[in-house]
Amino acid sequence: MSTGGYGQTGHGALAGQSGKKIGKLPENVMKRSVLGQIRTKREEVLSGAGIGKDCAIFSPCEGKTGVVCVQEAVLRIAQGEVPQEEAGMSLAELIVKCTNNLAAGGARAVAVMPALFLPQALEEEQIRALMAQAQEKCQELSIELAGGQTRLTAAVSAPLATVTAYGIGIEGEDHTVKAAAPGQDVILSKWIGLQGTAHMAERYRERLLERYPAWLVEEAAGFKRYLSVVPEAEVAIRFGVCAMHDASEGGILGALWELVEGAGMGLMADLRKLPLRQETVEVCECCGINPYELLSGGCLIMTAWDGQGLVKALKEAGIPAVAIGQLTEGKDRILTNGEEIRYLDRPKRDGIYQITRKERESK
After folding, report:
1. Helix (H) or strand (E) holding 29
2. How far is Cα 282 from Cα 342, in angstroms, rounded to an integer?
3. Could you tell me which residues are beta bridge partners of residue 161?
4. Spatial CA neighbour of 58 closest among 151, 143, 163
5. What share of the chain is helix, strand, coil (3-state, %, to 5)?
6. How confident is the model over 41-72, as pLDDT tens digits?
7. Nearest to residue 90, comparing CAs of 141, 161, 193?
8. In angstroms, what CA-CA distances link 165 with 23, 70, 96?
9. What residues contact 99, with CB distance under 8 A and at least 6 apart?
10. Collapsing DSSP states into helix, strand and coil, what is residue 77?
11. pTM given for the model
12. What rounded mean pLDDT belongs to the chain?
């Protein structure tokens, strides 16, 4: 398994250097601010990032399968540095998103390779900070930055990244939606809306502080610490989970739709059981967003024949979890709320984009 590495030998210049050129980062900048930030190493990666290395080499593992995930995003380096119509996320968050998708498929991430397209005006200190945050997250997740590409270009006004993550799964095991079946319980880990709450608490901090105490806003912004679902996925696999799906854009309602639509079956779930933090309720009320349609990275959807047993196993590992319903025969996707009954709709545009659209229209 291989892909392009940080083989940067061009002579592009950053803003502030003579010429304001485009292209690859200068080799000295690459060594200082990109390669110099990479520290975590994995034995599965035989050859990783380095000058002149155009691919990464991974060792084969007997009885294991290779799993790959690709995700992209406009990067948020500092507040206000992404176009208003974009939600934006840090490179560290994008890496977490990739590893979450691998975890939901039953695989453990071992390496990531980001491709970065950077505005000409970006300073070297910003690039160094970007890579340092990514390395810190990789170290936390025990994965290696095995290579990638970094390019300065006039084609982007905000940093754009594509991250490819490589993982190792167990041969013969499949925890994707194909493993779901009618009669299985549906379980959620932690809480819904975590990622969106953290994003809004940072972006709309001043607005929120006019209405709520500082501790609530700080706690909401701190929800980023919950975004990895690797711990619950590992507990679930040991327990004997059937299918897993990582909730993200479109909120929990969008993620539940993707689960049942991909599995080709129905759902009976209790809306009142969806786990929701009070901080999310308050932030969504202030910003006019439906919390059930809000970025929900950090929440893992699982199906199992013994839902309560899985909930117990997760709680014993210190991970909040709740069973919200069951998969059913047919295509009816029903959400109950006391005596009220409604049907699960196709995913709507994430609430994050709804608020940025309102901002544009108000100007």
Report:
1. helix 27-29
2. 24
3. 73, 116
4. 143
5. 35, 25, 40
6. 655 554 444 444 345 455 656 667 778 888 88
7. 161
8. 24, 6, 10
9. 109, 112, 141, 143, 165, 167, 228, 230
10. coil
11. 0.82
12. 82
